């Protein structure tokens, strides 16, 4: 993620074949959009699939949630590219389901299920919190300078790093076969490890091949190979596909609507951080598109982009899926193709919506064994942590900053590993600090305000 105020260097960074407002011929636009689709389709559906598997959501409902992930991502991508009134950045920006919220949703959702709450009620509470939290992000879009002063790159870097580190556990569970494998005693057996390690090894190998389109599609290619390996080993389950309708009709509030304060507190904090991540990604896209990266026009793009982040998360909650955010993957594809035309974003949006309305697509994705998915999510979750490190590397790490990082990581990871430390606290505090991301993030925020900066 780039820092909020970027360098005012306006020199073109890329020799574009098609600029921001150019209209490529349909064949060229389709091919460029397809490249983006290869890079984003797996990350868009993965958060929903992991959450549904962890919480024991039925195959039919999982199919619907995955389909809506694609549809809602398509709507957001359209708004970002087209720019409708105040909504959108007017750039070739792809938006999809965010990885940032997986940890709290799985952690607190699993606790609710274990306490005897029906899965349907848990999902209703999750989507109620998704809707409520979206207003935070929409509000943030209007007061960005003030929020930037409060949540600095130091705080953002710590939170993003904690998100990645706390997700590693979920990645390892997926590599071993998931929670279902734990219950039926097949966790980390030879078949699961072969499938997951095959995918992981392929991603590493493909990323070392000096062909840009292969690198950008490495995760998808590795998952396809893993899918084939799973088929030969007899581990593909198409029961979700058999129960799927021919066309997925969007159903508002399929699970009803409830609310959970224990989930809202960590989610609210992550919404703030996701807003600031979006600023960096939008700035990077603006720079690659040879557009301003400071000044009024840039700020207008930032506000419109973050507003869509929040508004689309509101839509996601209404239509039974999870919060969305700006994806960074498309920036690599812009560099690869030299196509920064925002009209390509409309093609991408159409592809996502069409795929989402065809439940067979979600059914095929759902058939993949969790061990195959695990090999890929370990890389994705590691990439989230690496992104946090990248943010921290861009600031001056003096003794004050290192102290804040040390305490925040210690508290956040400590609570994630030993949640029993909270068992004698009042329920309100247990709810607030039950997420390692929330604990570490709140610690970083308070320390960043309380500890005076060293004078240079």
TrEMBL record:
Q: How does it sit in the membrane?
A: Multi-pass membrane protein
GO cellular component terms, semicolon-separated: plasma membrane
Q: Which residues cross the membrane?
A: 27-56, 91-115, 121-138, 150-168, 188-206, 218-239, 259-279, 344-365, 371-389, 401-422, 428-451
| A family per Pfam | Xan_ur_permease
Q: Give the range the annotation lists for the signal sequence.
A: none
Q: Which UniProt keywords apply?
A: Cell membrane, Membrane, Transmembrane, Transmembrane helix, Transport
Keyword Nucleus attributed: no
Q: Which GO terms describe its molecular function?
A: xanthine transmembrane transporter activity
Instruction: Tell whether Cell membrane is among the UniProt keywords.
Output: yes
| Primary location recorded for the protein, binned into one broad class | membrane
Localization per record: Cell membrane
Q: PANTHER family, alphabetically?
A: PURINE PERMEASE C1399.01C-RELATED
Q: Which family is this sequence assigned to?
A: Belongs to the nucleobase:cation symporter-2 (NCS2) (TC 2.A.40) family.
Its recorded name reads Uracil-xanthine permease
Source organism per entry reads Acinetobacter indicus
